[in-house]
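Chapter summary example.
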Amino acid sequence: MKKAFFTYILFILAMAAFITLRVRAGAILATDTKPAEPEPETLTETYAAQEHEAEEEPPEPDEDDHLWHGDIVPEAKFNGLIPRIVCWGDSLTVSLDEKSAFPDILRSMSGCEVINYGVEAESTSMIAMREGGLRVNVKATVIPADVTLIPIFLRTENNGHVHFLDNGDGGVNPCEIGGIEGELQKLNGSYYFKRLNKGERIAIEEGTQFVTHAMKDARPDDILVIFAGTNDLPTVSNAHNIIDLERSMLEAAGCSKYIIVGLTYAGGIPEIDEVNAALEKEFGEHFVDIRKYMLKYGLSDSGIDPTSEDLADIEKGEIPSSLRMDYVHGNKHYHRLLGEQVYRRMKYLGYIP
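The structure predicted for these 353 residues follows.
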């Protein structure tokens, strides 16, 4: 009995030892077959890897980048004499010092004669009245033989109000009525005309066109730059009004070389993207979407580190504050960028050598 009991105990102990050996052998085998751990990285390698992982994807290429930057490959070859550049617009075109506004930048970069017909606070229709795109008529009157100031009554071809001289001359004088050259004045809200030289007494028929100096001075080889529409505060539904007036301006000038500058004041034009898209669809490669360029490249191309306010502006679709004087008007950086991009587009189109 005791012998059998001891035999049983020995058997149990032997089995336990066997199982323990098998388990240890399996652990050793698993350790031997496990892939080796990589050598510890240096701190430099670790940070480099982390920075690489943190890098953002490069920005999507801009379809107009070949126009914004780098060498210009003209689409058309320049032919003829150096042309004049005639800039039409509102306060975004006006030059206060004849060196800082975008027409001044165009003058210095191109070597061309540049005429600035910017007048502040004007809508597209007001600009078109001065340029001839919107006809202005004179009611029947008589111009005396001597140099005398006489009242005249002006209306647009669609019987609208005329706004000459409200905020500046902008190419109005010296003007012409019925072939008589003279000067237009605005006194107490009314218009007066005074011929420059004595001559014959002339009866002016109803509907005779009032001709501004800019209209008389227009040349077929001029390059027109039109930056208009900000004071219209256009929407998608009425953007065609600006387009129609700008088309009429081109027809009145009789020129085929022109640049249309897109709108930049998103704060007053909530549908600015759609309005600019309508302008681009109409004018194609003649259209410069300067807002699109400034939002993406304006700060970097001006060497300006963006402030938190700039970043917030860009997020809202506004021109960055570092490129503006106030809520709508650009500073020297804005005008330099605009002048450079209009110049580049003119070279691309073969307008200037």
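To summarize the output: The chain has two domains: 89-123+219-353, 133-211.
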